[in-house]
Write a structure and sequence with these properties.
Strand order of the largest sheet: 6-7-11-10
Strand content: 15-25%
Shape: globular
Distance between the termini: 21 Å
Oligomer: single chain
Radius of gyration: 22 Å
Helix content: 25-40%
Number of helices: 9
Bound molecules: zinc ion
Number of strands: 15
Largest sheet: 4 strands, antiparallel
Length: 310
């Protein structure tokens, strides 16, 4: 690979997430972290906020260090702390009297500061692109889709086995993966697959009816139900969920299999939204073909075209 790459929060090993390896000691010296330790939020929100700030401080130092490290064409810092903060403390944003209201705003002020610092370093013809992969809103209720599938007879686990997806019984017609991707338990595709190809469409219709009528506390839960071919394309289409559910405001759909109830409230107070993601750019060189309503996929095409033209 021609360049530097530091993987994000799904990496399981710090050193293996960094390329080239020669950068490892420097990043360790800067106290660089792949992610905030969200476990701390479950114990003590003060510890979590401390960790959040330390992670951001180290990331800013790494950005400053790497800025002059090599002669790059694309430099892409990612901030995941805002996501962690909004999951745990959307309640603090919402309420001016909340103990952590100012801590919440301070984190975003620091992000603003970094963006400003980066902007001030740009050369005249450099393009600055800012984007988020989703927005946020207040979380009212978590809704456990696999719990629904179990109670409606679409999902069963082997007798005396733990309720995990590896223990699915062949009576299963469908199961969900986080956050709300529904897979038909197709014969030949999964170890306990049982739904014949010819029965798949009827099964999808039954599921669509189930999700359309789903209510919690008398409120409709599901806003949109997509079939995979409506929203995905490409060589891995067959591996996508057969249905993708988008929730109504406030509902957070989850794929956990251990929930004891259909709906509940965990430690999170904020949840992702689909429609509030943003894309900002300062470039004059937007290709004429660029969409008025770009998707996150368009951002990649945009970056490629800007680099090619520079
Ligand atoms: Zn998140």
């Amino acid at each position: 690979m021609n360049g530097v790459h530091i993987s994000g929060f799904v990496s399981i090993d710090f050193e293996r997430s960094i390329h080239p390896k020669s950068l490892v000691p420097q990043l360790k010296k800067l106290d660089y972290r792949l992610d905030v330790d969200a476990q701390k939020a479950h114990k003590d929100l003060n510890l979590f906020l401390e960790d959040l700030n330390e992670t951001l401080t180290a990331r800013i130092k790494a950005i400053e260090y790497l800025w002059n490290y090599t002669d790059w064409q694309v430099f892409m810092p990612t901030f995941t702390g805002t996501d962690r903060l909004m999951h745990f403390l959307w309640s603090a944003y919402d309420d001016k009297d909340h103990k952590y209201h100012n801590d919440f705003l301070d984190h975003f002020r620091q992000i603003d500061q970094v963006v400003g610092d980066i902007y001030s370093k740009l050369a005249e013809n450099d393009a600055l692109i800012m984007l988020s992969d989703h927005g946020f809103e207040r979380l009212e209720k978590d809704v456990y889709i696999n719990h629904l599938l179990v109670s409606e007879g679409f999902l069963t686990f082997k007798p005396n086995a733990e309720p995990k997806l590896v223990n699915i019984d062949s009576a299963t017609k469908a199961f969900a993966l986080d956050p709300a991707r529904i897979y038909i338990n197709q014969k030949g595709k999964y170890p306990a697959g049982s739904v014949e190809a010819g029965d798949k469409d009827a099964c999808l219709k039954d599921l669509e009816n189930l999700f359309q009528s789903l209510q919690v506390d008398g409120i409709k839960v599901i806003k949109h139900i997509y079939r995979k071919q409506d929203i995905y394309a490409g060589p891995y289409l067959q591996d996508a969920g057969d249905l993708v559910l988008i929730a109504e405001k406030g509902f957070n759909l989850k794929g956990a299999t251990t929930a004891r109830e259909l709906a509940g409230k965990g430690p999170f107070t904020g949840k992702h939204t689909y429609q509030d993601a943003f894309l900002l750019l300062n470039s004059k060189d937007i290709p004429p073909s660029f969409s008025d309503h770009p998707s996150v996929i368009d951002a990649g095409k945009l970056i490629k075209s800007l680099v090619t033209n520079s």
